Amino acid sequence: MAVPARVLLATLPKGYQFPPTSLRLTVEDVSCYLDAVQDPNPLYLERRLAPPLAVAALALGSLLEVVELPAGTLHTGQEVEARAGLPIDAELTLAGRIGQRSERAGLIISVIEFELTAAGSDAAALTGRTTVLAPADVASEGGR
Fold first, then answer.
1. What is the pLDDT of residues 42-83, one digit of tens each?
2. Residue 61 DSSP SS3
3. Which residues is 79 bridged to in the sheet?
4. CATH pick for 7-140 out of 3.20.20.70, 3.30.70.270, 3.40.630.30, 3.10.129.10
5. Pairing assessment for the beta strands 67-68 and 7-8 based on DSSP bridges
6. Which of 1, 46, 49, 67 would you label with 13, given CA atoms 20 to 30 Å apart?
7. What 3-state class would DSSP assign to 27?
8. Is 50 exposed, middle or buried (0-12, 13-18, 19+ CB in 10 A)?
9. In whole angstroms, what is the distance from residue 108 CA to residue 54 CA?
10. What is the separation, in whole angstroms, between the first and last Cα of the chain?
11. What angle, rounded to 10 degrees, do the helices at 52-64 and 27-36 form?
């Protein structure tokens, strides 16, 4: 099976909708995340709840599988709102879009808005916004 080509983030227009993606955060993922951030609190594993920032990291990692970030790209901001707890191993649906896009001082400013919804729910359990700056000259050259 051919791997789909990744699209250059800076070329995506405001309003672009990423294809919905199914995700699952396993107990191993949560353990690795807790080790990486040096969080010794056993609450997440005892209650089988995924840390909200671990879920956000999983979502952004999934989006990075379909977009390309050129050299010189900066991640300049992150907002996350946890609206409900997400159980470890829950089936999640990721929806994302380009919420804002502008160009200033030779940079493309893209804001990715995303939300994660647990299977069987109509309400997003976690929402977020990520701001990324990329060189405009790379976008105009198509990433080459």
1. 999 999 999 999 999 999 999 988 999 989 999 999 999 999
2. helix
3. 129
4. 3.10.129.10
5. parallel
6. 1
7. helix
8. buried
9. 27
10. 25
11. 100
